[in-house]
Queue: 2 jobs
Job 1
Amino acid sequence: MSEDAMQESAPEARTAELGHALEAVRRRIDRAVATAGRDSTPRLIVVTKFHPAADVRRLAGLGVQDVGENRDQEARAKAAEVEALAEAAGTGPSGLHWHFIGQLQSNKAKYVVRYAAAVHSVDRASLVTALSSAMTREQERRQDAGLPRREDLDCLIQVDLDPRPAHERPEGIGSRGGAAPDGVLTLADRIAGAEALSLRGLMAVAPLGLDPEPAFRRLRELSGAVASRHPGATWISAGMSQDLEQAVAAGATHLRIGTDVLGPRPEVG
Ligand SMILES: *Cc1c(COP(=O)(O)O)cnc(C)c1O
């Protein structure tokens, strides 16, 4: 039986499975926080890419408030489906925060601002311009339609921390995209000065196949430099299933965990 068919025939078993996995991840995070001697726990963003809207609903029922997606088309459809399911069930809006964490083409900005509260993958000036004008238009659209005001879009700069030249990198999550470290402050100034955007901090993916520790240490240094110019920009989005402990040790404020909560994906994107 396919994974989908199993989920259909055993919806409660899937909910229990997600509940156990979520608990195990939360325990890992708590242990890492204690080991690092930190007094605050990072926010858990559950990365739901490749998994169905039904799983997102289950996660929301288990207390998850933040979900992450890396492809606009999939995220857009899933966010709409989650809200439709919530409406059909009479439970009201899900209240979920959608975090966009993938490579983003500027022409998709107008879609992303409709469902995403945050974009973690801002890595170039042209994308700042596109997000700013899309978010401005979205706020105007909502006002004209008599809808509640949307907060400014939370933006994080994705930093490329891989020391290897592009052609020597293995293909995988984060192997493309990201601003060069020496361009981060300029990009930060640009986001901070852009209408309808709110500069929150930095995001990175540890270089595939290398020790994540030096990369996360560099990320923390860059974060300090950005936050000293922009006091509100203190988020550090780092840490995935494989390296959450190292990310917590390096001061991550947001963790993006997929596989260890939802199980394996059919492919990695
Ligand atoms: C998929 C993805 C994650 C989650 O990775 P896991 O190894 O499944 O926990 C985190 N960050 C980004 C940018 C991703 O694309």
Job 2
Amino acid sequence: MQLELFVTFLFIQNQVLVATASSSSEEDEDDDKGSSHEHHWGYDDQEGWSSTFQDCRGQSQSPIDIETGKAIYDPSLPHIELEGFDLTGSSALKLQNNGHTLKLSLPSTMRIVKGFDQVYLASQLHFHWGTVAVPGSEHTINNVHFPAEIHVVHYNSKYTNISEAASKRDGLAVLGGFIGIGLHENENYEKILSALKDVSIEASDTDIPGFNVRHLLPNNLEKFYRYQGSLTTPPCFQTVHWTMFNETIMVSRKQLAALEDSLKAGHQLLSKNFRVAQLLHGRRVLASFTSSPSVNKDLSEIKPTFAPIEGQMSRGDMLSIALGALFILTLLAFSVYVYQQRKTYSRSKKHSRENVIYKPATKDDV
Ligand SMILES: *[C@@H]1O[C@H](CO)[C@@H](O)[C@H](O)[C@H]1NC(C)=O
Ligand SMILES: *[C@@H]1O[C@H](CO)[C@@H](O)[C@H](O)[C@H]1NC(C)=O
Ligand SMILES: [Zn+2]
């Protein structure tokens, strides 16, 4: 019983630490609303971005490498629920080559209704890719790139529009998916990719018929990673709730090649439009799923009375418990040691020569 009290105490202490850490890491808002004059930036000079856009050298930048073994399973992460994503039969959508990416404008009737504290409204989706030889996803999994990545950008419905939301701490939510190569043509992606030839020139655009945008995302939206990050392009505002889905979206080799080879930025091929992974600087990556579900089960079998806590057991909690147990073991070992020392002391009064054996270690031994 006392052990449990102690462990509970450690747990509470841990939670307090977590709370303090997260509140102190809130970004100060940088209220220069992006200077009106256009700055030219490119992917060849990523280190140079921060000289013009100071947020790009912040401590909560994106993309990041997601180390699957270090992601913290958080069963309290709410599932994502989308509404209005089926645009079949509704008005046409503007597809654009803006020189940095292939971008599809989205209506604000598309929204994330569950998953965050507020409703987030869609604004646009776009892609990042490489070449045949260089896989070009922005986020990496255990330092490995995927061939391409899709970003569906949303803004908090409490703001008037995306430009107002973009600089606000809780302004943006991006749903990201890894794109891999499969055997079959992805007919949903073809709705966009078949129009690539119409936007090959930088700053050109075309209209494509509405379709079900939900089908561009993985089937399984329940498994995802969540972390706090930034825009991956200047001005790099650190205002994005990132969601990266665990399930990979598959397109055919031919479809991927079309994305890699069709668009131009100026006279050059528009490709390798991905930013390198940024440092975490102490940020946590949460996971809505666990790859080892047995861990929680085992704990509940050992400690059935722990039900209220076990439900949200995170790595930190388990560490607290382990440390608590370690502390108690040390205490026990120390008690045994003291007890034996005492016995020895009383004996050594009779046999004074034995004293030598129990002399404490000197500094030279350390
Ligand atoms: C966004 O909203 C702000 C504030 O309401 C307004 O000043 C601005 O013109 C809007 N921008 C666009 C692009 O609609
Ligand atoms: C999905 O999760 C599994 C289990 O953790 C992991 O091995 C795999 O690399 C993940 N893939 C992606 C794309 O997140
Ligand atoms: Zn992006």
